[in-house]
Amino acid sequence: MATIAPNSFDRGKPFYPLVISFLTQLLGFKELAVRGIVGRRSIDDVMSQLGGPTVISDQALASLRQSLEAVMGPLELRSEFSANRIRVDVDETAREIAQNSAYLAEALLYALGAVFILAHEMSKDKPWHDQGPLWEFLRHCRNAAAHGGYFNFLNNEPRRSAKWGPFQITPTLQGTPLFKRVNESGMLSPGDPVRLLWDIEQACPQMSV
User: First CA to last CA across the chain, in angstroms?
Assistant: First the structure.
């Protein structure tokens, strides 16, 4: 099975942080679903698995425990509007995902389209962006993602060739989903955003942040 490691993307080009954020979202969904089923890991268990030096001061142990408690505890989001923090309980969120995973996983497809939107928006005015088939393919994926996850062609679109490997965007896609659904309708799967951005980066060596 062919793989593309996230760190294969050039850190000096714009797609690297976007891909890492994209994968973090997917991995976080999976990890929370597991946590909702098997429960959270205790701090004592985590500390016992860290290894490290056999001799460590009580102060260092206390500092490590405090850091783990912050990382493993609730997510607190600063709100400028309310001048306080929005507290998100991790275990409660994990249970929600575990109990409603099928419904939420399908809804996650809409969020996956954000990678197309961001990749297009950060590239559209750059000198290395052109109207070739790869960039046009990304543009139409961006438009579909921004319109409810379905292809919606206006103004005689597509006006230019939009191809990526075996895929070609044509007017016949009107009204079809961008990502495949349970009934197999749709065009792409969740791994395709990463592969498309990889192919664009390889085709445009002059790209830069």
Answer: 31
Cis peptide before 14 (omega within 30 of 0): no
Type of residue at 3:
T
Tell me: pLDDT of 2 over 60.
Answer: no
Average pLDDT over residues 18-25: 85
The Cα 155–Cα 166 span in angstroms is 25
54 has a pLDDT exceeding 90:
no
The encoded tokens of residue 162 equal 């939009």
Residue 116 CA to residue 139 CA, distance in Å, equals: 8
> Averaged over 35-55, what is the pLDDT?
71
Measured between alpha carbons, how far is 4 from 2 in angstroms, rounded to an integer?
A: 7
Query: How many CA within 13 A on the CB side of residue 58?
Result: 0
CA distance linking residue 143 with residue 163, whole number of Å: 15
